[in-house]
Amino acid sequence: MNQEKIGNFIATCRKEKGLTQLQLAEELGVTDRSVSNWENGKCMPDLSLFNPLCEKLGITINEFLAGERITKDDLEVKTEKSMKMLVDIFNKKIKNAKIKLFLIYSILTMIILFFIVDFIGIFIFNRPVFAIKNAKENVYRGLLYDTYICPEYSVPQIKLKGNKFNCSKSIKYQIRTTTRSDSSCDTSPKLYYDNGKEKVYLYCLDKVEINDNNKYISLLEYLKKYDDLSQAVKSLDLSLSAAFYDGGTTIYRDSGKSSYSNEGITLIKCQKMLENGTVNNDIYFGPKDMEFKSNYCTNNNQSFIRTYKLENIKHGNEEKSYYLTLSKFQGETDTVLVYNIFDKLKVGKNYEFEFSKIPSSLAVDDKIDEIFKNTKIISIKETDKIGLAQRQEEMN
To answer: How far apart are the C-alpha atoms of 12 and 6, rounded to whole Å?
Structure first.
C-alpha cells in the first residue's frame, strides 16, 4: 500500500470537488488536521471512513486504494489488489487492538500485584512497601491507604485514604471532693508513680483511668507501658495552654474535649533546670482549674498558704528590705522583715503568702514571726477572699 500515492489522490479529488480540507473534514466528522495527515501520506483514514470519503470524492473504493482512476481494462486486476489491501488493513487493525488489550490487562495485573505486595508489607515490615514516611505524624502514607504506627497499639492501624486515625487514648477521671482547709489537696501533691527518672503526682484527684481499647485501666498501668513518660503525656492529646522559660516546663489542658469526663483536666510537664545543675522532669495531674505554683517542678514541692492583711509597709535599713505589718483574721498582728520582691504590695489589701513546708522534726510556734523566720516565701498573691473564706493551711 502506497500511502503517499493515496494521499495525493485524495488531495486531487478534493480539489476537483472544490472542497477545502476544513469543509471535507466537517462533512466526515473529523478535524482538518486529520485530512492534512491523509493527504501528506502520514496515515490512512479509519476503515469506517472509507465508504463516506469515497462518496464525497466521487470515487470507488478500488480507486481510493489504488490511488488513481481505474479504467475498465484494469478493473479486474485492481479489484484483486484492493481486496488484498483491505484484508491487510483489517488484520493490522485487529493486531493493534490485541496489543492495546494486552497492555491494558498487563497494567491492571501489575497494579493488583503492586497493592497485594504493598499490603503484605504491612504485616512483615509494619508499614507499606511503597510508602512515604511522615515522621511528624508517625504515619506511612501509601497510595490507597495509610498506616499509623502507634505506641499504644501492638499492631499497625490501617486506614483508607481520607480516614485519619488518632493514636491518642481517652481519659476518665474523678475529682476528689475537698475543702480549702484540706491542705493535702491544694498545696501538697500526692506521689503516684516513680520510675526512677520522673515522678508523677496527683493534685485533688481521687483516681485517673485511661481508656485502652474500650477498656479502662489505671493511670499507673498505663504509665508503666512507657519508658519515656513524655511520650505517655503526648499520647493523651491535651492542648498546650502555657510554656515557661525555665528549661521547657509546659501546661496542658483538655479544652473541653468530648473524650474527657468531669469537665476537664490539667497536666503540668516539668522540664526545669535546678540550681544544682539537674533537670526536674516531674509530671502533675490535676483538675481543670489547677494553676502552676512556684513550688512545682522542684525537689521539694511541699508548701502551705496563709492569708494576711497588710496593715503597714516601710523600708528597712538594708537595700530592698521591708518591714511588713501583717494581721491574721481573728488572730494576731505582727511585723516581719522581708527582702527583694514585695515593694508592689498595697496597704489595706489581703494577700495569700505561700511558704515552703516546715519539717515535722522542727518545733515552730504557729505565729506570724516564727513562720517567716523558719520558712521560705514561695509566692505572694493578692486575694479578694475575706473572713472564714480565707486560706489558712496547716504548717506541717
So the answer is: 10
- What are the chain's domains? 3-70 (1.10.260.40), 123-160 (no CATH), 170-287 (no CATH), 303-389 (2.40.50)
E strand or H helix at 239: strand 239-243
Stated pTM of the model: 0.40
What is the grid cell recorded at 373? Answer: 523566720
pLDDT of residue 310: 94
Q: Tell whether the model's pLDDT for residue 1 goes beyond 90.
A: no
Decide: helix, strand or coil at residue 102.
helix
Beta bridge partners of 337: 323
End-to-end CA distance of the chain: 111
pLDDT > 60? residue 184: no
Measuring CA to CA, how many Å separate 203 from each of 193, 267, 284, 300, 301?
Answer: 13, 10, 7, 15, 12
Taking residues 321-340, report their average pLDDT: 91
C-alpha pair distances (Å), 201 with each of 69, 172, 391: 104, 17, 22
Distances (CA, A) of 374 to 111, 293, 369: 78, 20, 9
Residues 6+ away with beta carbon under 8 Å from 68: 5, 9
Average pLDDT, the chain: 77
